[in-house]
Amino acid sequence: MTDHDVTDVDLLRKKVSAFVRDRVFPSESDLDAGGPTARDLREQLRVEARESGLWALPLPAELGGGGLALSAYAAIAEAEGASDHGPAALGSASLLDVTMLSRHGSARVGAEYLPRLVSGDLRTCYAMTEPDTPGTEPALTATRAERRPGGGWRVTGRKWFVSNAGDADLVTVLARTSGRTGDRTGLSLLLVPTGSPGFRVVRELPILGATGQYEIEFDGVEVDEEHLVGDTGQALAVAGERLQLGRTLRALRWLGQAQRAFDLLCDRAVACRGARGPLADRQLVQQHVFESLLALRTARPLVYEAMALVADGRDAHVEVGLAKTAAARTLQAVADRAVQVFGAAGLGPDTPLPALFRTGRTARILDGPDEQHVSAVARRVLRSRQGGPAVTPV
């Protein structure tokens, strides 16, 4: 499936969109609730995705995925992302970890974990941010990994706002292996099995009432040398590569959710009638429609341009920063306008709008706050005009 023409990709996008609309949307409340029911439902959706030929479309074909190139996957990522649960149900949620471990993992790690990641039998999470330390400042990482006398590492520290850590089998952790706090060198990435002695989930951290984020602790957790990801001291290079793809994927998924909010807004405007006729006839509602469409049409080409550069292996710091910020702002703004058109109903449990708005608000902080991307992009642009190095932090 590595060679797709436009027609193939368009057909896949339509099939994915229908699957998410018909199978994932109705299951969102149960999936959000967690527990055994959610696990059973996720597995049922995965079976259906496999039977429909939609499983793990962007993952390597030799590992059991669809082998779809990143450039072709962009439109499908947007369709999957219309629901937060879409990527997991369709097997693409592990794309970042599969890409990272394929490029930077040891041979043993690749053989042991990659097939199980693609099949969905192995769950992972990524731990970078720490309590009382800005997530945008990895140099301030306090988690440490010390060499064991017999080889390997002993990891000690605490991380928080780690997505999906509650049921993860593996966690990739950023830790200092040399140097002092504040140094941008001396940081390494280690892959830690969560069943290891000394690993503990400290607590769940609800985000505006939603589950899925956790605080975790490493109390002298021991891992062997082959669980080092990339070279010792080179974590920021690997993390930067991961973040470029990760931010772009998030932006595509946020576009999918913004489009969903826009569709809800328009449907409500047409269907809801008051004493003076349908909402669609009111100029202020028309303005909500216009501003939402303008935001979507403005953000989408920025995101697709970023994905094209990332897929081509080219420098995309400016484009990714623009795309991430534009998509996050668009989702928040469109969801907010949709809530306004729905009125009180948009605040309650009968529509997905509260979840879409919540995601839009958190999107402006996840993977670097707006302020970080504004400053980083502006510095790069200005330094390029001055002829100096355009260095951007991870």
TrEMBL record:
Residues 10-121 form the Acyl-CoA dehydrogenase/oxidase N-terminal domain. Homodimer. GO terms for biological process: fatty acid beta-oxidation using acyl-CoA dehydrogenase. Residues 237-382 form the Acyl-CoA dehydrogenase/oxidase C-terminal domain. It comes from Streptomyces vietnamensis. InterPro entries: Acyl-CoA_dehydrogenase, Acyl-CoA_Oxase/DH_mid-dom, Acyl-CoA_Oxase/DH_mid-dom_sf, AcylCo_DH-like_C, AcylCo_DH/oxidase_C, AcylCoA_DH/ox_N, AcylCoA_DH/ox_N_sf, AcylCoA_DH/oxidase_NM_dom_sf. This is Acyl-CoA dehydrogenase. SUPFAM superfamilies: Acyl-CoA dehydrogenase C-terminal domain-like (SSF47203), Acyl-CoA dehydrogenase NM domain-like (SSF56645). Residues 125-221 form the Acyl-CoA oxidase/dehydrogenase middle domain. Belongs to the acyl-CoA dehydrogenase family. Pfam families: Acyl-CoA_dh_1, Acyl-CoA_dh_M, Acyl-CoA_dh_N. Keywords: FAD, Flavoprotein, Oxidoreductase. One of its GO terms (molecular function) is acyl-CoA dehydrogenase activity. Its cofactor is FAD. One of its GO terms (cellular component) is cytoplasm.
